[in-house]
Write a structure and sequence with these properties.
- The protein has an eight-stranded antiparallel β-barrel with strand order 1-2-3-4-5-7-8-9.
- The chain is globular and about 50 Å long.
- Helix content is 14%, strand content 55%.
- Strand 3 and strand 4 form a beta hairpin.
- The chain has one domain: Porin, CATH 2.40.160.
- It comes from Paenimyroides marinum.
- This is DUF3575 domain-containing protein.
Length: 181
């Protein structure tokens, strides 16, 4: 639990420093995934680069003898490169709230504390790193945004309980969010 609190406090310091010293656009948003929900903050570092940090619950479904549903607290830091933002601008397409395609580096910490499961299932403490291709669009000039993400991640099991969790895995996700500011 101490390590979890230390990570949350470090992330809070990074958020605060970023807010104070940057003059670029930023967005607070809350979102829901296919399985899970989060609160996030994205800061534009330039017209093509941004960094996004999220705090939430990541969901998983497993099929053993029964269907097991698990929600696990997570922290995500995601540097983003919006490669087609200028092209969308030149064509007069909407780029509000970073509506563009982007590549990302995904760094995620999933804690084993505060897991929620329908079968008392224990999800180990993991650190994941991966890359992704993402599509982000604003829904008809509102504050609603959707993202589609796909890529590859490497899971590293911190507690070394289940060594088979250390492996490359594909991922795919869909997120619907609302911009709060």
């Amino acid at each position: 639990m101490k390590r979890y609190l230390k990570n949350v406090l470090t992330l809070a310091v990074v958020f605060t420093t970023s807010i104070i010293y940057s003059q670029q656009k930023h967005y607070f948003e809350t979102g829901i995934y296919l399985i899970g929900a989060d609160f996030s903050y994205e800061r534009n570092l330039s017209s093509k680069f941004s960094i996004k940090a999220s705090l939430g619950y990541n969901g998983s479904i497993y099929k053993t003898n029964e269907h097991i549903f698990v929600l696990q607290p997570n922290i995500i830091v995601q540097p983003r490169f919006y490669y087609n933002k200028d092209k969308r601008n030149s064509k007069g397409k909407n780029t509000e709230y970073n509506s563009a395609n982007f590549f990302s580096l995904n760094l995620e910490y999933l804690t084993s504390e505060l897991n929620i499961s329908n079968a008392g299932f224990y999800e180990p403490e993991l650190f994941t790193i991966g890359t992704g291709w993402n599509l982000r669009r604003n829904i008809t000039n509102t504050k609603f945004v959707y993202e589609f993400s796909t890529g590859i991640v490497y899971n590293y099991n911190i507690n070394r309980i289940y060594s088979e969790d250390d492996k490359l895995k594909p991922y795919i996700n869909f997120r619907l969010s609302y911009i709060l500011n």
